[in-house]
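sry for the spam today, last one i promise. struct tokens for design, 331 residues
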């Protein structure tokens, strides 16, 4: 069949962003796919399940830090002024609630500005917050903060007597290479003004087995999350991956201080991607690298924040020092 004939049998309009990422990543050696591809509706649901797994300590550890220190975090950010709270990514709204409650306790009302590329994610994550926490007004902002083209965030003017606290929590920064993380933080810095502050949540280096279990849970939810990327390519790019022909693999790359997730071809196989008019030959054991999750050493996040032009102000952690939340100020 010719390439021109296949779109007729293919009902969905191809997303060029996804097509380009799959084309580039799957024809490279080693093969790779970007981690943002995980988050279609099914993937977002699987990720929510991950955050409740006994092995996945990140979410509950960060939430416990917020529960214990929310008042101090909000207080230090405000320094006597009124705060509005912005957040990069709308997915972590559950933990954000803890900070919003602390802000409402302090100043009775607060404006919450979640920033996300997806309007629907913003809608579903944020609409009920206004009902759940009286005093909160949600002002969603649809913006792409991950793609560097030099544009600034346009969050709109805060009131004269107001300061902004920007949140980037949940170890989301962990998906970025160190140089990309720095670029992202610089872009965030450029969108804030003197007196504003930034709260960064990072996962810390710890025992290898704890890390591996968090990314390869007994119930297999993370494996399903990893394989869902193939299911998505089947649907969106008319591919014919057999998701069960790929094994989930999580490994600790000590030298680069990151957990890596891969999909490993269980045997030699051929996969076609209709929308790309592409046939791929996988050798037995050949991998697709789907995610990096960087783990920080104590002090490393503060150093990165400083390099990005912030002034680190305070860091909160849990007893085991498994997770850290760093507050930095714009001077
Ligand atoms: C959403 C990037 C913080 O790296 O821990 C969870 C994604 N991947 N399990 C992480 C993820 C596998 C998660 N982040």
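last one done:
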């Amino acid at each position: 069949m010719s390439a021109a004939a296949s779109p007729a049998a293919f009902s969905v309009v191809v997303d060029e962003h996804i097509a380009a990422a799959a084309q580039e990543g799957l024809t490279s050696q080693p093969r790779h796919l970007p981690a943002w591809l995980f988050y279609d509706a099914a993937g977002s649901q699987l990720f929510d399940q991950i955050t409740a797994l006994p092995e996945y300590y990140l979410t509950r550890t960060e939430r416990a830090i917020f529960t214990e220190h929310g008042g101090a975090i909000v207080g230090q950010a405000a320094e006597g002024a009124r705060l509005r709270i912005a957040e990069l990514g709308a997915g972590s709204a559950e933990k954000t609630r803890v900070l919003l409650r602390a802000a409402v306790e302090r100043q009775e009302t607060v404006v919450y500005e979640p920033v996300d590329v997806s309007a629907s994610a913003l809608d579903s994550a944020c609409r009920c917050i206004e009902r759940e926490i009286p005093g909160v007004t949600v002002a969603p902002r649809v913006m792409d903060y991950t793609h560097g083209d030099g544009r600034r965030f346009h969050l709109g003017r805060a009131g004269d007597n107001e300061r902004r606290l920007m949140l980037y929590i949940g170890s989301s920064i962990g998906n970025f290479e160190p140089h990309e993380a720095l670029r992202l933080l610089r872009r965030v810095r450029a969108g804030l003004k003197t007196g504003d502050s930034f709260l960064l949540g990072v996962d810390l280096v710890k025992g290898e087995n704890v890390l591996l279990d968090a990314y390869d849970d007994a119930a297999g939810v993370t494996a399903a999350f990893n394989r869902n990327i193939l299911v998505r390519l089947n649907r969106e790019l008319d591919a014919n991956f057999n998701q069960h022909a790929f094994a989930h693999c999580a490994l600790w790359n000590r030298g680069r201080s990151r957990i890596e997730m891969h999909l490993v071809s269980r045997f030699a196989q051929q996969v076609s991607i209709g929308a790309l008019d592409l046939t791929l030959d996988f050798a037995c054991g050949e991998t697709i690298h789907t995610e990096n999750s960087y783990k920080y050493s104590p002090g490393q996040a503060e150093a990165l924040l400083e390099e990005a032009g912030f002034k680190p102000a305070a860091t909160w952690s849990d007893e085991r020092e498994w997770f850290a939340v760093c507050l930095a100020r714009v001077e």
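Residues 50, 58, 170-172, 174-175, 215, 222, 291, 293 surround N,N,N-trimethyl-histidine (CB under 6 Å). ok im logging off now
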